[in-house]
């Protein structure tokens, strides 16, 4: 046993020494051939130094060498590893305004995510996305079953902002928060503002939350003729009853997860507007919903959107996820256009309060999907 431990410690020591040597060589401007030789001799590309959490890919981004960045990516460098400051190598590239290096790393992320999605689709068990690893998180933040069993609170925070929060471990997380109102308003405008069926809309929304987007649908100059809302959480359903949603003309509330009601929704079909914003579901679930869209919408004039928030605490992750979603929507015949919505940067407003931050970027990328004309 002591011999095995000694051999293991020696292996760790060798990898550490090679990893440090590779990073130092890159930072000191060694030639491409010299770096290539070090990698071929077994220097681990996954290694990150203890002092800064820097990897070889971070180092290559710091010295702004696109050829070296591409080589490391091709050799298996981890595109989304973060240093001790939670920065990726792509963040380093952005700090230098180096679009070439940023794009190399971003494209590597897109390829990796598409491959993981493909492998997951061929497996009976879903593999976690490398964007947001949730496989070990069984709290209400990442487990639908845990979320549906959790108690929600509908309150106003210290700034007077309406929030719906859930307890996840030792912290509270916003299921939906008042600062999203501008995003929802712009979303409804893009979905419905010039819709050719605006006088006779048939709307489907997955996930009620605080009811922001559903209230905006109801506030249109002409209310939707039919307005389906799919919501599984008992506390949200009770909140909806207290607010009178069950009595609103044309509103039909389905009390279950969308996965459990999808057959019924497909039978109804013919929706002019479809929106989804679910809590605690990952990208695999969202992609699963994408696949039903061609059979849910009325036709080429129909429009679709979703809350585009996965990976939204890091510019690289958000960019990769946005591109992956666009490609997967294209696979089912949906063309997407994007609108950047500026998030309020009022320094006097702490929109997060005591809850976990889930969107820290300056702009929200709003997707609007339509059936491709070539489908």
From TrEMBL:
Q: Which SUPFAM superfamilies match?
A: Ankyrin repeat, S-adenosyl-L-methionine-dependent methyltransferases
Q: Which residues form the RMT2 domain?
A: 138-375
Q: Which GO terms describe its biological process?
A: methylation
Which SMART domains does the record cross-reference, listed alphabetically?
ANK
User: Does this UniProt record's set of keywords contain Transmembrane?
Assistant: no
Please list the residue ranges covered by the ANK repeats: 52-84
Give GO cellular component annotations, separated by semicolons.
Answer: cytoplasm; nucleus
Sorted alphabetically, the keyword list is: ANK repeat, Methyltransferase, S-adenosyl-L-methionine, Transferase
Write down the Pfam families for this protein, in alphabetical order: Ank_2
Molecular function, one GO term: protein arginine N5-methyltransferase activity
Query: What name does UniProt use for this protein?
Result: Arginine methyl transferase
Taxonomic classification, please?
A: Eukaryota, Fungi, Dikarya, Basidiomycota, Agaricomycotina
């Amino acid at each position: 046993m002591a011999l095995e431990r000694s051999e293991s410690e020696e292996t760790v020591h060798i990898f550490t020494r090679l990893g440090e040597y590779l990073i130092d060589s890159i930072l000191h401007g060694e030639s491409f051939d010299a770096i290539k030789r070090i990698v071929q001799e077994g220097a681990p590309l996954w290694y990150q130094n203890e002092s800064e959490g820097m990897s070889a890919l971070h180092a290559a981004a710091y010295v702004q060498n696109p050829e070296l960045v591409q080589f490391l990516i091709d050799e298996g460098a981890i595109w989304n590893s973060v240093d001790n400051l939670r920065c990726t190598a792509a963040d380093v590239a952005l700090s230098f305004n180096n679009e070439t290096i940023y794009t190399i790393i971003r494209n590597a992320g897109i390829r990796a995510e598409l491959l993981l999605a493909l492998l997951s689709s061929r497996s009976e068990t879903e593999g976690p996305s490398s964007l947001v690893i949730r496989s070990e998180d069984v709290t209400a933040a990442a487990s639908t079953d845990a979320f549906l069993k959790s108690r929600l609170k509908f309150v106003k925070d210290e700034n007077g902002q309406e929030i719906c929060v859930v307890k996840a471990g030792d912290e509270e997380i916003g299921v939906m928060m008042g600062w999203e109102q501008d995003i929802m308003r712009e979303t409804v405008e893009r979905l419905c503002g010039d819709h050719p069926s605006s006088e006779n809309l048939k709307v489907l929304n997955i996930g009620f939350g605080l009811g922001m987007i559903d209230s905006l649908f109801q506030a249109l100059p002409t209310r939707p003729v039919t307005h389906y809302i799919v919501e599984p959480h008992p506390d949200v359903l009770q909140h909806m009853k207290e607010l009178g949603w069950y009595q609103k003309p044309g509103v039909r509330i389905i009390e279950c997860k969308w996965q459990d009601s999808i057959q019924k929704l497909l039978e109804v079909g013919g929706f002019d507007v479809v929106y989804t914003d679910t809590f605690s579901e990952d990208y695999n679930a969202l992609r699963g919903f994408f696949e039903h869209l061609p059979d849910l919408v009325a036709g080429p004039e129909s429009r679709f959107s979703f809350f585009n928030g996965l990976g939204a605490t890091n510019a690289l992750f958000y960019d990769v996820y946005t591109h992956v979603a666009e490609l997967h929507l294209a696979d089912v015949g949906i063309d997407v256009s994007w609108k950047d919505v500026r998030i309020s940067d009022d320094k006097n407003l702490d929109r997060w309060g005591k809850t976990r931050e889930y969107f820290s970027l300056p702009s929200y990328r709003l997707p609007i999907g339509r059936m491709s004309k070539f489908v």
